[in-house]
Amino acid sequence: MSKRDYYEILGVEKNAGEREIKTAYRKLAVKFHPDKNPDDKEAEDRFKEAAEAYAVLSDTDKRARYDRFGHSGVGGSQGFDPGFTNIEDIFDLFGFGDMFGGGGSGRSGRSSVQRGADLRYDYQITLEEAATGKDAKLEIPRLEKCLECEGKGAAKGTSPETCISCGGGGQTRYQQGFFSVMRTCPNCSGRGQIIKDPCKGCSGAGRVENSKRLEVKIPAGVETGSRLRISGEGEAGANGGPSGDLYVVIHVAEHEMFERQGANLYTSAPISFTQAALGAEIKVRTLDGEEELKIPAGTQTGTVFRVKSQGVPSLSGGGKGDLFVAVTLITPKTLTKEQRKLLEQLAEIEDVDFQDEGFIDKVRNIFS
User: Fold this and answer.
1) 272 and 192: one domain?
2) Non-local CB neighbours of 230 within 8 Å, separated by 6+ positions
3) Within this chain, do residues 167 and 82 fall inside the same structural domain, yes or no?
4) In 3D, which of 45, 43, 21, 48 has the Cα closest to residue 31?
5) pLDDT means over runs of 10, the chain (368 residues)
6) Domain residues for 37?
7) Whether residues 282 and 358 fall in one domain
């Protein structure tokens, strides 16, 4: 007997998205699961059929082969094993383990020990500091382990007791129709332990609010968005769990003279008419000081010069980037009598009929 179309089995169109396919399969899996339909061979076959269709259509490569070659493109094997022996597996697959009030997997319970939260700290530096690196001193507000009870939450000399209701798992199980439902234990609020004599220092929480001063080395070459991970410097874990991590996110402030693109820097420098016409050597500012830049005779405004190795170090290695300087011709707003006289003499002898051939070509290209 020929196999049914996978899209038809799940009841979706061929252009259905991943979420639509997943939702359709979940409904069929719950409806026809053997736990709900004991001794029903037809329901079992429908369940396996839906599982086989989902296994193919949820995989990008398999779906592409199926769309092109049909069942032969994905093997078309009979007797597909969906791999789910308990209906709770269906909800675990789609992240619905807590849909009826549970706090995690419905079969194994959970440990009351929890890892601490990761922390983010935004830190702003100057472009000069980004280029050279910096040893930053930070003060991080966070939850730390209570030293009085060593994170246990119980008063000194006492210990938390295992919750009788959940046996220390933090969850209780009960039957709701054909579902086996897990819920957070109401007796211990999911901790798995009962503290009869709470620690006065932390009121039984096991953690206290505090701040810690850290010295963090910021490497040369960082840019806005760079993240530095400091392991174990996040918040302390609950019930003696390990601490999370601290992430320092770098923000490089805008510079008044330089614009940064990767490891390269960009700036501009003013030059006079005589410097542009006759050529000159000028000093341009860099992050480290000043550099000599040779301006050849006949330089046009907007010409860009490169000063090698005067950019920012690359985080990935390979040395520094370059500094690119765009020169701008400055026209004086006021002239002395002598300057005006000299310029008038120049105006009398210069060829005023010159044209920028490059500019003319550009205009021609626009209208051609």
Assistant:
1) no
2) 214, 216, 245, 246, 247, 248
3) no
4) 43
5) 83 90 89 81 88 88 83 57 44 43 39 81 96 95 91 88 83 65 80 88 91 94 94 88 92 96 95 94 94 95 95 88 95 91 87 55 48
6) 6-93
7) yes
Cβ–Cβ under 8 Å, residues 260 and 272: no
pTM of the model: 0.59
Same domain membership, residue 75 and residue 189: no
Domain assignment present for 106: no
- Tell me which of 93, 111, 135 is where a domain ends: 93
CA distances from residue 81 to 49, 208, 238, 252 in whole angstroms, order as listed: 9, 51, 40, 55
In a domain, 109, yes or no: no
From 252, 285, 316, the end of a domain falls on 252
How many CB atoms sit inside 10 A of residue 363's CB?
A: 10
- pLDDT value of residue 97: 41
